[in-house]
Amino acid sequence: MTLPVKMSLSPEQIARALASPCPLEGMPVCQGKLTQAAVLIPLIRRAESWEVLFTRRTDSVENHKGQVAFPGGAVEEQDRTPEEAALREAWEEIGLPPESVQVLGRLPRLSTITGYCVTPVVGEIVQPVTFHPAPAEVSRVFQVPLVWLADHRNWEWRWYTRLNGTADWVIFYQPYEGETIWGVTAMILHSFLCAIGWMNPAPPPVNHS
């Protein structure tokens, strides 16, 4: 269910909301030996509204080929925090300078089927930036209005069967300018929308018929 949207939501309000994020039913919890990773949810303020920046991965990357994603990757030895890892990856993938991002907070960690434990980091892009996608990793950088992403008419749960034969309920958005946001990226997005009070996400269906 979409909740009343406060178009003038400030960065300070977002930061306060992220300090006590709401639990999201169906979020895959990190358990066991997983590779630590971090992603950046880059926010751009347009007058009184917000947009979210996404990338589309190339078909040559190791995981999630051709899928819409947030900038991010595995935490490396030099990264002291998930924030440092997320900002480093954003610089390497799309040329977003770390000094152009004001970190607002984190979301709860979640696991992926590819063996990662991901910490989502939320940050506002506070300076004008010209993006330079890494050709081997990113085929496109684009933005979607946050109010569109919060609208329950634009997404649904679908029963999805993977190439390895496993299946479960997965969030799929309607295409936006030819791009489809789904899977872990959509789950992270819903966690953020829940945290800021813009969405009360419906849990996945109990059964598949």
From TrEMBL:
Needed cofactors: Mg(2+); Mn(2+)
InterPro entries on file: CoAse, NUDIX_hydrolase-like_dom_sf, NUDIX_hydrolase_dom
CDD domains in the cross-refs: NUDIX_CoAse_Nudt7
Nudix hydrolase domain span: 34-166
Xref: Gene3D superfamilies: Nucleoside Triphosphate Pyrophosphohydrolase
Keywords, ordered alphabetically: Hydrolase, Magnesium, Manganese, Metal-binding
Keyword RNA-binding: no
PROSITE patterns: NUDIX (PS51462)
Gene Ontology MF terms in the entry: coenzyme A diphosphatase activity; metal ion binding
NCBIfam families hit by this protein: PRK10707.1 (NF007980)
Record protein name field: Nudix hydrolase domain-containing protein
Species: Anaerolinea thermophila (strain DSM 14523 / JCM 11388 / NBRC 100420 / UNI-1)
Taxonomic lineage from the root: Bacteria, Bacillati, Chloroflexota, Anaerolineae, Anaerolineales
